[in-house]
Amino acid sequence: MEQQELFDVTVIGGGPAGLYSTFYSGLRGMKTKLIEYQAELGGKIHVYPEKMIWDVGGQPPITGAKLMEQLVEQGLTFNPTVHLNEKIISITKDVFGNFVLEAESGTVHYSKTVIVAVGGGILNPQKLKIEGAERYEVSNLNYTVKSIERFKDKIVIISGGGNSAIDWANELEPVAKKVYVTYRKDCFTGHEAQVEQLVNSSAVCLLNTTIHKLIASDDHHRIASVELIDCATSETVALEIDEVIINHGYEQDAELLANCDLELQQVDDFYIAGTASSESNVPGLYAAGDILSHDGKVHLISGAFQDAANAVNRAKKFIEPEAPKVAMVSSHNEVFKKRNRELIQEMVNQNR
Asked: With contact defined as beta carbons under 8 Å apart, do 121 and 17 qualify?
């Protein structure tokens, strides 16, 4: 196993909570590492990059993609060490009391404190269970909608009946040439208002049906049509389509906490039981974002920021008991003095 240097703080998870933890840890002058399972930072926001987000304080409505961009830029302010495509599978301690984080790759990371910010865990979309379906993932079989423009003037079929599937159907209906929604049950399970909007639109709702077969184009590179089967009668019908979107939910990978050999207290066999100050029952191990569970927990991006600041402040005190409880606010923090001068000069130049 490759050994790594010792960090003050290691943040597991590169979503909003993890990115703000990384920023705030740098603000507090700690040597920080950020580890993310995916190839990109941003977390679950990658699932809805074109959705508008309204509930971040002081931030006008913003797309998920733009918010991700800003969170990443902020998170990297103090040049943390970042590891992408790295899955942490266990957390233990060594004889010196430092945390030992083992990655699936065999790499071992060492840290004085750890902030777990993995949200709902590693989420993998439930794939379409049809043999050979995976070969169309590079063409027109989609598990998320990264760009609405991609579906403009296309014939689209969406498989799924929950909130996300209904939401995407409503988003694409005015843009696409035609939208079909197929669902294996006799009624949708999404929010009533969204379902009502869908059934009153031009979208075609095909209940009690499911995708039974994918029919390839002549060059075998794309899906040309799908065969649907009626769940009650077994009758089949083929529909010519341009794009297929599958939204059958997500599989939750909880291997990290399952392999945590520290008697970490959990809630519902997954979430970290903690305090309003982001502390777990394990000294030096903190949680931020949706993975944290306590009375009064706010499951919003804004709430994740407070969790992150609390976790970092506790980590700082854990390492340096004589350190101030909180960081100096940014408006009066000497760390930003030079950067502020540069930003002010840029604004002056732009207004000339």
From this structure: no
